[in-house]
Amino acid sequence: MADPRYNRDPASLSVKLWGVRGSIPAPGPDTLRYGGETTCLEVRIGDRLVIIDCGSGVRIAGRALAKHALDHVDCLFTHTHLDHICGLPFFCLAYDPSVELNLWAGHIPPGGTLEEIVERLMSPPIFPVATSALNNTRFCSFRGGNTIDLGQGLTVRTVRLNHPGNATGYRFDYKGSSLAIITDHEHGDAEIDAAIERFVAGATVMVYDAMYLDSEYPRFRGWGHSTPNEAVKLAQKAGVKHTLLFHHDPSRTDDQLDALASSLPDTMSVARQGDTLTLLAGSLLNSAMLPMHWPA
Ligand SMILES: [Zn+2]
Ligand SMILES: [Zn+2]
Fold first, then answer.
1. Would you say the pTM of this structure is higher than 0.90?
2. Cα 180 to the center of its chain, rounded Å
3. Ligand 2 ion: nearby residues, β-carbon < 5 Å
4. Segment (H or E) for 101
5. Which of the 8 DSSP states describes residue 250?
6. Nearest to 161 by CA among 140, 139, 188, 201
7. I want to staple 84 with a disulfide (CB 3.0 to 4.6 A). Which of 28, 53, 76, 207 is the partner?
8. How far is the centre of ligand 1, averaged over its atoms, from the C-alpha of 45 (Å)?
9. Where are the domains of the chain?
10. CATH class for domain 13-289?
């Protein structure tokens, strides 16, 4: 099952970025280098595979993963805003009866379910195929903040984020490496910020929502997103080794993201679709960029 292009060491933890954009897919000449697909990350822990979010990027992720004869995939949603679930109806593994797919969400208030939300997305007149076509798929709920057990010794810590309608952050710890994913989130709630600081403490890599620049943020206060400067502050306070800025505004061009990247300290970078980051024994080994649109 291991992909020979990365994660060769069974002690490593890796994350591949299939979609790094927020709000809506943003294809076009200005987003070729950083990518236009919305949020989707593929996390490999030893021989386990976990998908975070089914934004539009999960479509190409599914095409790549279909080559690996997987029999089990867990997919953890940060939340169910459209940019994080719009790819699910186009995720080929969800229709494959030989793949047991578990969909997880921890942000839904009592009385609602993930299944209901997906049924709303996948029903006429919005979408012609119903959830009954999702063969071998289970919908699983948990309370944001609890640790979830994905079976066979794999547990994932979670934290509640500050976002309209709630969202969930995730942390994977494996053989001395740790990966924290904090999106979608707006800084400024003292209690939630303190909990997140404890949650990401000492992480090898933190993926962080940095959708707005400082100059833009005042216009979008309350929309549930943060800034690169807040990422810097949090990473310093929490002792995060490397921070990846994520959930780019759909109007942010490659040139603007280059300028942002050049302003960052060595311990931070800008998420690019196609990158794979490999963590081993608490260190970030590499950030290797693969051709963006593979597989053909
Ligand atoms: Zn989003
Ligand atoms: Zn959102």
1. yes
2. 10
3. 81, 184
4. strand 100-105
5. T
6. 188
7. 53
8. 25
9. 13-289
10. alpha beta
